[in-house]
Amino acid sequence: MARNSSFSYKGQSPDIRTVSRELDARYVLEGSVRKAGGRVRISVQLIDGASGDHIWAERYNRELEDIFAVQDEITETVAAAMEPELEIAERRRASSKNPANLDAWDLYHQGTAAYYKRDKANLARAIGLLQQSVERDPDFCRAWAGLTEALFLSVILNFSDDKDRDVDRMVEAAGNAVRADNDDHAAHEALGRAYLWQKKYGEALSEYEKALTLNSVSGRGRYGYAVAFLHSGDPVRAETELNAAIQLSPRDPNRSAFYARMAYCQIALGNFTSAVDWARKSISEPFTDPSVYWFLVSALGHLERTAEMKDAVNELFARIPDASLDDVREQLPSVPETIDPLLEGLRKAGIPEGGMAARGGAALCGQTVHCSPALRQSFRRRGAGIFFRRHGRGSDYRFVQNLRLVGGRPQFLVLVQGPDARCARGGGKAGRQVCARRQRPQDGRASAHQCPVDKCG
Question: Which residue, of 6, 16, 300, 396, has the greatest Cβ tally within 10 A?
Fold first, then answer.
C-alpha cells in the first residue's frame, strides 16, 4: 500500500472496516507514538479489516538517541512479528470456508494449518491440500514451498511410506518454488531445506543466505540457516542464528522446532544441562515432534540423571516404538562432529544401535526382546496379535499378547516379523499357530493376513 494512501487518514479516527474497504486491504496495521524526555513508546496493533477484531498488539519502549536507528529497528521488529500472526489469521479464515469454495490460497493455508500439527495424519492431509493448491495455481510459490516443508517433515519424522519417492517430490517442489518466484525468500528457504536433506551443506547455506538477503527478518529463514550450520558442523554459529530466530519470531507457530534444534545444538556444544532445558521447553509447546525426545534422552544420559532418563526413555519409545541409533543416523543429515555427541548420550541411556528390522528380521521369531512399560501399555490397548506397525522401513511386527518378566524386565515374544517372515511355530494368545505375511493388493498398499499354519499357502 502506498504511504500517501494511508497518510490520507492522518488526524482522523475512521472506522477500520471503512479504511479496509476503501483501500481494499484485508488487514490494517495501526499505531501510535508517544515521547517523554529521551524515551519513546511505540504501540502497534494488527486489525482484521472485515470484522474490526484485533489480531495482535505490541508495545515497544526505546531510548531516543538515534531516531533513524530506532525507526529501522522497529520496522524490522514489527515486520518479523507480524508475518506469523498474519499467517495464523489467514489459516483461521481459510478453515471457516466451505470446502467447495476453496481457491489455491485457501488450500495453501489449510495445508499449512495441518502441517503445524506435526503428526502423521495431519502431515498427510497437509501434503494433499498443498498438492491441490499447486495444481490449481502452478505458479503459486508459497504453496510449492509449503509442499517442500511438509514432505521434508514427513521424511525426517519417518512418517513417509516411500522415502525415495517423497525426497524426489520434495526436491522437485523446491525447484518449482524458485522457478515460480525467485524473489520470494520462502522459495530459497525451501530449496535450502531440500539441499540440507541431501547433505549438500554449501548449497543449503547459500540458499538460506539468498533468503535472508530478500527478507532479513524472517524468523523461519534464520532458523533454517541455523539448522544448516548445525548439521554441517558449526554449532557455535548455529547457536547464534537460533537465538536470532527466537528473538525475531517469539510466537512463531514453528517455535517448538526452534527449541528442539537448540537442544541438539547444546548437545553438540557439550552444554547438556542447557540441552535438557531447551528440550523440555519444546515438549511444553503444542504439536512438538517426537524427535525432541532423542535430544532429551541423550542429554540426560550424558548427565547420568538416571530417574529422569528412565522416564524420558519410556516417553521416547512410546512415540518411536522402534527407536534406535540407526534411526537417528538416518533421520538427521548431520556430519559426525555434530551427531556423535548425540549418539553417545543415547548409548549411555541404553538406546540400541539398530531397530528390530536391523536385528535379524524373521530370525527374531521365538526370541524375547525388551519392552518398556510405555510400550507394554500401548500393546495392551491394541489387543491380541498386533503390537505395532513400523511404517517406512519395510517391516511389520506381530507379537503375542502374553508378557513375562525376565530378570525383572518386562519382555514379550516375537511371533512373526517382517515381509520375509515364514510361519512361526510360536504360541499365540490361545496357543494357535499363525502366519502374518505382507500382501500387495491391487491398490499398492501394504497389508497383512493371518491364518492357521496348516492352511497357509
Answer: 300
Q: Is the dihedral of CA 271, 197, 220, 324 positive or negative?
A: negative
**Predicted pLDDT at 95:** 59
Residues near 116 by beta carbon (within 8 Å), at least 6 away in sequence: 253, 254, 287
Q: Please classify residue 449 by burial: count the beta carbons closer than 10 Å to its beta carbon, then call 0-12 exposed, 13-18 middle and 19+ buried.
A: exposed
266 and 129 assigned to the same domain: yes
Q: With 0-12 CB in 10 A as exposed, 13-18 as middle and 19+ as buried, what is 378?
A: middle
pTM for the model: 0.66
Q: Identify whether residues 267 and 163 lie together within a single domain.
A: yes
pLDDT tens track for 287-340: 888 999 999 999 999 999 999 999 999 999 888 887 899 999 999 999 999 999
Question: How much of the chain exceeds pLDDT 90, in percent?
Answer: 44
> Any idea which residue has 495482535 for its cell?
56
241 in the same domain as 133: yes
The predicted-structure confidence for 406-454, as pLDDT tens digits, reads as follows 344 434 433 333 333 333 333 333 223 333 333 333 333 333 333 333 3
Give the integer Cα–Cα distance in Å for 237 and 68.
29
Shared domain check, 43 and 181: no
CB atoms within 10 A of CB 5: 12
